[in-house]
Amino acid sequence: MSGSGVAEAPAPATGVETMTYREALRLAMRQELERDERVFIMGEEVGLFDGSYKVTAGLLDEFGPDRVRDTPISEEGFVGAGVGAAMLGERPIVEIMTINFLLVAMDQVVNHAAKIGAMFGGEVRCPLVIRTPNGAGNQLTAQHSQSFDGWFAGTPGLKVVAPANPADAKGLLKAAIRDDDPVLVIENLPIYKEKGEVDVDPDLVTPIGRAAVAREGSDLTVVAHSFATVRALKVAERLAAERGVSLEVVDLRSLRPLDVETVAASVAKTSRVLCVEEGWPSYGVSAEIAARIQHACFDDLDAPVERVGMAEVPLPYAKELELAAMPTEERIERAALQVLGLAG
Amino acid sequence: MAVIDRTDSPLDLDVDDLFGKYRTMFLIRRFEEAAERQYKAARIGGYCHLSSGQEAATVGAVSALEEDDLLVTGYRCHGFALARGVPPEAVMAELFGRANGCAHGRGGSMHLLDVSRGYYGGWGIVAGQLPIAIGMALSLVRRGKEQAVLCELGDGAVNMGAWHESLNLAAVWNLPVVFMVVNNLYGMGTSVERASAEPDIFKRAAAFRIEGERVDGDDLEEVEWAAARLLRAARQERKPAVLEALTYRYRGHSVADAGLAYRTKEEIEERRHEDPLVRTRESLEARGAPLEGIEALEAEVEAEVEAAVAYAEADAPPSVDRLAAGVYAAGSEEQFERMRPGSPAGEEELVFAGGLGK
Ligand SMILES: Cc1ncc(C[n+]2csc(CCOP(=O)(O)OP(=O)(O)O)c2C)c(N)n1
Ligand SMILES: [Mg+2]
């Protein structure tokens, strides 16, 4: 395909390879397109343009326009088309350029996709995948910098996963495609270029509903997902080196269903918790985690559960303002030290 | 393409008038070239969508606005802001994210605005500005004003539900709004032919029984003539309309897009023969404008753009302790006062301390 130069040769069946997050997503789609005729991709610029963020690069050439379908700018229309096709047993993967544009299709997601299984008494299912990145930090301003993860995770009938590294990107996307329910796969703009080791085995999926302990530690549990996990891991490294404290980072990976067990087991060990997210914390993912923890871990806690997220304003453009609003490593570190009782 | 009968034209642009409009077009071109350089030097962030090639459509339509008409656009809006008279230094300061930017450093390239000039914003969600324009037109009608709203959108926006809903509302409520479709043949990498079942976009107006007209968007006078007529009908007879301006963007979708994956270099070259700047300059010369005058104007504009960059560089960023400024109306602080206990880390300092409701 013109320009991209990223289309890889067919991957060997097994083995671990180093690849970027976007390549891992592409690998998952290629494998599932090969494996299952019912799988097809649609979205804006996914074909001829190679994908706005080049995730689908090369797939049009490989699978043709029936399997990799460019759409007009009509999110409500083609998300709904994904719902209808899924109801008849197709396995559509709908790409939404960024999660901000999913709002114009919110009705199809929340009022339609999420309702099918229940409204049809299980007679009809909706095995739809919606892939879309969240994220901020590039001065994209109020309408293009949002993370609505909590809104969707709060919707019964939907499943929501949010991989934070290439291995989980491949594994969770494959699990989502094979799942019989609508799954929102929340990708992340800054992570697309991150590299990691990926087991390319086409049969290997990451189960939905399982968190991962991304880093073991003993003094404080940081609960995060998506890009917040990347930030939390960096803070953990730094605090270990500079302050000699040991942070355990739990990467939720799956927001609905939510693996409270893994979070609670970590809190039982550390007795202190910091929840981090890229979205606004009020009524958000961290709010849900905090509520679960106070109930499941009441006797374990040595300090109130703390949260760090996006400052609760529409994101402004100026670099200085944007940076101040973001849940940066500095803000996470400060909050971590506070929960640890080490704040200067 | 619709045949335009020039004999009926309300425009008989005299040389001075044309001179001024050429100046604005030239300003837009040079301004955006400077913006691209600054973007590549990382002094401008976010997205930066250039409109090179679209200057005649922009200036023609904006010239047809009365002073008290309103303007709403999409995100490819540098030209619209400049044509509406927003000073180049205020636009450049906005691109730099500075306090004296026309959107207070909060909007950047996609969200230019100037309420004092009736410019209610560049908007970033495709077709999101259409229903807003409807509401503005409704308000004008409710107040008995003889004013109109010009709502700019791209060819890509006409396949959104908001387009259909807005045109229908405009028609059933007889609203003074002109939807100006800047048809530059592509929405990102998707050609109009691939995206639209009816690629003659102006014809879609017929579905709502409102007037639809297509013009050569690279012909300044043709655009202005049509826009003036449709805006007049909107103001005086409350007739909504669709004005489709056929043009071309020479550059990629944004500065980050080379713009070659979905079209050929030859196609771009061919379209450059229609360059509205060249065409307008030629008609200036044909009307007897002296070459030295045109060159002097161009030198003046170049200096103006340099001054805008210097102004933006020198201007200060907005102050961080006012992060939450404007988010809520004055008086809201008291309502939020009791939300403080248990605030997420940093929320006190970032949001409450600087004042929420101001
Ligand atoms: C609802 C929505 N979907 C997708 C996008 C991403 N996007 C931004 S611009 C654009 C293309 C729009 O093309 P067009 O309307 O022709 O305007 P042009 O860029 O040509 O000025 C797309 C798809 C968006 N901003 N909003
Ligand atoms: Mg276009």
Please tell me about this protein's structure.
The complex is a heterodimer of chains A (344) and B (358). Chain A has helices at residues 21-35, 59-63, 75-87, 106-112, 116-119, 149-153, 166-178, 227-243, 260-270, 285-296, 319-325, 329-339, and strands at 16-20, 39-43, 68-70, 91-95, 129-134, 159-161, 183-188, 195-199, 212-215, 220-224, 247-251, 254-256, 273-276, 306-308. Chain A is of the alpha/beta class and 344 residues long. Chain A folds into two domains: 17-199, Rossmann fold (3-Layer(aba) Sandwich), CATH 3.40.50; 212-339, 3-Layer(aba) Sandwich (Rossmann fold). In chain A, the strands form three sheets. Chain A has a seven-stranded mixed beta sheet, with helices on both faces. In chain A, helix 1 packs parallel to helix 7, helix 3 (75-87) runs parallel beside helix 4 and helix 8 packs across helix 12 (329-339). The longest helix of chain A has 17 residues, at 227-243. Chain A is globular and about 60 Å long. The N and C termini of chain A lie far apart (55 Å). The model of chain A is unreliable at 1-7 (pLDDT under 50). Chain B is an alpha/beta fold and 358 residues long. Chain B folds into two domains: 6-314, Thiamin diphosphate (ThDP)-binding fold, Pyr/PP domains (Rossmann fold); 320-352, no CATH class. Chain B is built from 13 helices and eight strands. In chain B, the strands form two sheets. A six-stranded parallel beta sheet of chain B has the order 2-1-3-4-8-7, with helices on both faces. A two-stranded antiparallel sheet of chain B has the order 5-6. Chain B is globular and about 70 Å long. Mean pLDDT of chain B is 94; it is low at 1-10. Chains A and B meet through helix 3, strand 14, helix 11 and helix 12 of A and helix 13 of B. The structure holds thiamine diphosphate and magnesium ion. Magnesium ion is lined by residues 154-156, 184, 186-187 of chain B.
